[in-house]
Amino acid sequence: MLSLAGLFLAAFLAATLVPAQSEAVLAGLLLAGTHPAGILLAVATVGNVLGAVVNWGIGRFLVRFAGHPRFPVSTAQLARAQASYGRWGWVSLFGSWLPLIGDPLTLAAGTMKEPLWRFLIVVTLAKGGRYLALAAATLVWV
């Protein structure tokens, strides 16, 4: 049970603007074989999506503090994310699983007032799909 909590925490943190990595944790638990793959995928996906919701919330409700020294992203990073999001709209959220750009995209979605219902659907598909591909690769490789 502790390993599932660790996976959830790693996935949650990895989706926020905090630098963290959840793929190695998921792969390690899959290889250990102590939990069914479906449970691991669900825990990782839920944790990662909830972390993305934190970014959305920061963007949605705290954007008025952009530029403050404690705001989690610089004004330039926020402007780049908003420009990218503005170019592609909600479809860009399918890239929320990508390293480096995925987290700022979820924050930008909040600043652009993306509806939470659509955000949840697209981000869950993107992040769940990434974990599914990782699990398949891990289990086939071994």
In brief:
The protein is 70% helix and 0% strand. With 142 residues, it is mainly alpha-helical.
Q: Provide the β-strand percentage band.
A: under 5%
Please give the domain count. 1
**SSE order:** HHHHHH
Structural class call reads mainly alpha
Helical amount: over 70%
* Principal-axis shape: elongated
**Uncertain stretches of 5 or more adjacent residues:** none
| Rg from alpha-carbon coordinates | 15 Å
**β-strand number:** 0
Q: DSSP helix count?
A: 6
End-to-end separation: 24 Å
Largest sheet: none
Mean pLDDT: 91
Written description of the protein model:
The protein has helices at residues 2-15, 23-32, 37-62, 75-88, 102-111, 116-141. With 142 residues, the chain is mostly helical. The protein has one domain (2-141). Helix 2 (23-32) crosses helix 6 (116-141). The longest helix is centred in the middle third of the chain and has 26 residues, at 37-62. It starts with a helix and ends with a helix. The mean pLDDT is 91.
Keywords:
142 residues; mainly alpha
What is the element layout, followed by pairings?
Elements: H1 2-15, H2 23-32, H3 37-62, H4 75-88, H5 102-111, H6 116-141
Helix pairs in contact: 1-2, 1-3, 2-6, 3-5, 3-6, 4-5
